[in-house]
Design brief:
With about 140 residues, the chain is mainly α. α2 (about 45-50) crosses α5. It has helices at about 1-35, 45-50, 65-70, 100-115, 125-135; strands at about 80, 85. The chain is built from 5 helices and 2 strands. The longest helix is centred in the first third of the chain and has 35 residues, at about 1-35. The model is unreliable at about 5-25 (pLDDT under 50). A two-stranded antiparallel sheet has the order 1-2.
């Protein structure tokens, strides 16, 4: 009985480590890609500033902030300001599914940056924002 419990615990630790490694590899790959595009070094405080920045940069911008839907604390659930749909936390520390899929990360950066700022985010902004999310525990 004890051997089975120990085996189960070890198995769970292996799975958690594998998931964490997969998450780290995805984010590392994204950050490396942004650096190849000329960005970096990344600063978490700039990422936090982007979360709270009001989108006034183009006529297409809504005047919203990322925080209007995602809250000022990305560890919390958010709610879309127009549809009322709940949004799972952005911070991977509390939502293990965040930042697992590079294509999804890029898709949501494109949609949300255009919808909020009226333009695509720069590689620097994306790297800063991801770096900020990774600092949240």
């Amino acid at each position: 009985m004890i051997v089975k419990k120990i085996a189960l615990i070890i198995g769970m630790m292996v799975v958690c480590t594998a998931l964490a490694d997969g998450h780290a590899a995805t984010v590392d790959d994204l950050l490396a890609g942004y650096q190849r595009e000329g960005a970096g070094p990344f600063r978490a405080e700039q990422g936090e500033r982007l979360l709270n920045q009001v989108g006034k940069e183009s006529p297409d911008a809504t005047g919203n902030r990322c925080a209007d839907c995602h809250t000022t604390d990305p560890r919390q659930r958010g709610k879309h300001v127009k549809t009322g749909k709940e949004i799972e936390p952005l911070a991977p520390a509390v939502n293990s599914e965040r930042l697992q899929d590079a294509a999804k990360v890029e898709k949501w950066f494109l949609r949300n940056c255009k919808g909020t700022l009226g333009r695509a985010c720069t590689p620097q902004e994306k790297g800063d924002f991801l770096t900020f999310l990774l600092t949240l525990k």
